[in-house]
Amino acid sequence: MERIILGDSGLSVSPISFGTWQLSPRFWGEQSKDDAISAMKRAFDKGINFIDTAEAYGDGYAETVVGETVKDLARDELVRNQGV
Predict the structure, then answer these.
(1) d(Cα 38, Cα 52) in Å, to the nearest integer?
(2) What tens digit of pLDDT does each residue of 12-54 get?
(3) Of 31, 55, 57, 82, which one has the greatest count of Cβ atoms within 10 A?
(4) Domain limits, the chain
(5) How far is CA 27 from CA 40, 41, 44, 66, in A?
(6) Catalytic one of 36, 57, 63, 65
(7) pLDDT, tens digit, for every residue of 1-15?
(8) CB hemisphere CA count around 15 (13 angstroms)
(9) By C-alpha distance, which of 52, 48, 1 is closest to 22?
(10) 76: pLDDT strictly greater than 90
């Protein structure tokens, strides 16, 4: 997949990101963690290297699921942006 530069950050990202807001049970109901992990891994296999998450998504649950997912991926191929 092609990459684009994200604004002025200098980060080279896929033009599509994988959002994890759906892992907020309060807004979306219970979601299968296994399905979410499978979907993130499939997105990565297709070239998506940009996963959007936040502490507010599921009160940290989304970040936990992302962490479980990326431990099995080539971490050097994922975008990591701190403090933006």
Answers:
(1) 16
(2) 999 999 999 999 988 889 889 999 999 999 999 999 999 999 8
(3) 57
(4) 4-77
(5) 20, 24, 25, 18
(6) 57
(7) 899 999 998 899 999
(8) 4
(9) 52
(10) no
How large is the greatest C-alpha to C-alpha distance in the chain, in angstroms? 36
Show the CA angle centred on residue 59, arms to residues 58 and 62, nearest 5°.
50
The candidate with the shortest Cα–Cα distance to 48, out of 13, 80, 84, 74, is 13
The strand pairing partners of 18, in sequence order, are 51
Give dist(CA 32, CA 66) in Å, integer: 13
pTM: 0.85
What integer pLDDT is reported at residue 38 of this predicted model?
97
Given a cut of 60, whether residue 77 has pLDDT beyond it is yes
Q: In the structure encoding, which two tokens stand for residue 11, read together? A: 């980060």
Q: Is 57 a catalytic residue?
A: yes
Quickly tell me which residue has 């049970």 as its tokens: 25
